[in-house]
UniProtKB/TrEMBL annotation:
Alphabetized InterPro entries for the sequence: DUF305_CopM-like, Ferritin-like
DUF305 domain boundaries: 48-116, 144-198
Signal peptide: none
Native organism: Novosphingobium marinum
Domain of life: Bacteria
Protein name per Swiss-Prot or TrEMBL: Uncharacterized protein (DUF305 family)
Amino acid sequence: MKKRLDARQITATCLLMTMSACDRTGAQNGGDPSEAISHDLGPFFRAETAMYDSMRAAIGTSSGDNWVRMMIAHHEGGAALSRVLLQENPSPEIRALAMHTVRAQERAVRELEKLLRDGPTDVESALVFLRPIQKMHDATTGVFGPDVCTVWLRKMIEHHRGAIDMSNVLLKQPGVPRDTANAVRKLRNEQVKEMKVLERAREGLET
């Protein structure tokens, strides 16, 4: 006699099927589809797509562990976006900021890795983070601008906002690393403000 799945098992199974479908899409035609279209979508597309896939696949043992793993992927993505910019001959001021961003994101990854937990994965507790991940991905990939420096600034603003949204979601869950989430939220809010100032300054240069 077949066992009946309850609603939570069905939801978790659907999530896993969605992730598998994404993997299959990338494998169609024997290669990575971003290879063919990343040029048209700008230099950041491959890094953005890799970050999105890594965050969705970062499943841990609980809500808190899921957030930690997803934020590690998030920070690695921020460093990757900044490395892409450094290959595009940015202005000295933006280059310095991008280099600082790489170091800061890598440092944050090392700190978060200390919070990782071992144990059976809890797919269901990861579901609450899918919406902010999707929102951030849509926002970053939807960014355009007159030059690569402005585009990077705008993408990083949305990237930081994604961390804020994910931290806000985490803080609604029980038994989570609240101090770390609050620290991330505070820092990213400050970085958004700083980058908005630079963005407005660059807009002034264009007029």
